[in-house]
Design brief:
The structure is a homodimer of 262-residue chains. Chain A has a domain of 152 residues: Rossmann fold. The first copy, chain A, is 44% helix and 13% strand. The first copy, chain A, has an eight-stranded mixed beta sheet, with helices on both faces. In chain A, α7 runs antiparallel to α8. The model of chain A has no long low-confidence stretch (mean pLDDT 94). Chain A contains eight helices and eight strands, in the order βαβαββαβββαβαααα. Chain A is elongated and about 70 Å long. Chain A has 262 residues and is α/β, with parallel strands linked by helices. At the A-B interface, α5, α6, α7 and α8 of A face α5, α6, α7 and α8 of B. Chains A, B: It comes from Pedobacter cryophilus. Chains A, B: This is DUF2520 domain-containing protein.
Chain lengths: 262, 262
């Protein structure tokens, strides 16, 4: 199946490399910033195209791997062609956004965090797939199964919930690593000091349900420590608010009586 | 050095096992709930004592490993005795809380998350130590170095900042894993689906500064997706507030212009 990739970001980059590794000819790359398309195309041995209208007639699968808020606009520029499969890769975007392609369209949503700087074993990335028809789903399943051992169907609503849960488990988590990094930096302390703790926190979640291994001042409803911490964050009022709010949510979960009226 | 442990929680349990593994005789265990002291004492081959006043004359080191808000009360019950070293294990509690022991006191603060259900290589746990005198610090350093390869001095203020950064990097992170777990549970989806993502998010922080590998809708300032996610969380208003606040903090960091007046 001859493939064109629209997008040159983290998902487009990792996905196109996985496709090629699995033996699929990724022929064309387009990006909003043409130089990015040129770079990715060079890296994977494809051609870069300056305009979406330049998608070759011979392309059988077009994969849209752009920001969620750009999908509609990008999709509107893809020429409609019979027997061409159009796929987007977004968690929160419904399959219906592609319905103008009437014929064959669907979704491959990789539930993983990609950074260009980080290598990744794509075969372990959970892929959630959806197709507009059983036949589309079948084709998409064939492509996805070449890339990963963890493929399963999910409708648009399920996929959106997976995405929002991933924002908490990954994006917000990484932001909290960043806040911790900044707290240490301001005191000239190395982020290395926290790495064993971060690793162990994730390790525990590999073996346990996280709700069963919560620790910390809020879990113990230790108001003295929580108040001291909020004082320590005085030069970052926004983090004080965040600290208070998350702690309150933890207290509410593990000490439902005490949390009332606070 | 004959040791008594006051406390029977996660830190007391892991620390006393590490002490014994390193060849130190942990002789006595006390806990607010005597049955917990009995259980831990049985596990490590020590004696449980029902009252702090029962600490034997021969004990040379007393380690206070109780909740931060209980340290003062526990310390007040320890008989003052010359040449006995008193140590607490708290991040946010200043060394001064032990000053009534005039003679020798200090802190061993393990920067790690402990759960009774999770085994852990204590030799890799960063230990931050403080002593009231150079001689106390030296003794504490000797004990700590038997337990871990990663021992370094830190004053009470530095330790408190390490602790608050750890609350973000570990406790709040685990709570976000828990929110994700609950979002999936409500849809009968397995937490297994998120485990590769959690692992990779932590892996990336082992090799990069987290501020350089942030991903997600807020990082892209993708308001469409953020608004959809907030809608999806409608049955959990508290999580909507949390989602909004953290996203706002991410947008502010990576898109300082756009975040103004929002």
């Amino acid at each position: 199946m001859k493939i064109a990739i629209l997008g040159s970001g983290n998902v487009a980059s990792h996905l196109s490399k996985a496709l090629i590794k699995a033996g699929n000819p990724v022929m064309q790359v387009w990006s909003r910033h043409h130089e990015n398309a040129v770079n990715l195309a060079l890296e994977i041995g494809a051609n870069s195209i300056p305009d979406i209208k330049d998608i070759s007639e011979s392309i059988e699968v077009v994969i849209i791997a752009v920001s969620d808020n750009a999908i509609e606009n990008v999709a509107s520029q893809i020429p409609v062609k019979e027997n061409r499969l159009i796929i987007h890769t977004s968690g929160t975007t419904a399959i219906a956004i592609l319905q103008k392609f009437g014929n064959q369209y669907g979704v491959i949503y990789p539930l993983q965090t990609f950074s260009k700087s980080a290598d990744l074993d794509f075969s372990q990335v959970p892929l959630f797939i959806e197709g507009n028809t059983a036949s589309s789903l079948d084709k998409i399943s064939n492509i996805a199964s070449q890339l990963s051992a963890k493929v399963q169907p999910a409708d648009s609503q399920t996929r959106a919930l997976l995405h929002v849960s991933a924002v908490f488990a990954c994006n917000f988590t990484n932001h909290f690593y960043t806040i911790a990094q900044q707290i240490l930096q301001e005191k000239n302390l190395s982020f290395d000091l926290l790495r064993p703790l971060i690793q162990e926190t994730a390790n525990k979640a590999m073996l346990n349900l996280p709700s069963t291994v919560q620790t910390g001042p809020a879990k113990r409803n230790d108001e003295l420590t929580m108040n001291k911490h909020i004082d320590l964050l005085s030069s970052h009022p926004q983090w004080q608010v965040i600290y208070h709010l998350i702690s309150q949510d933890i207290v509410k979960k593990y000490h439902p009586q005490q949390a009332e009226d606070k």
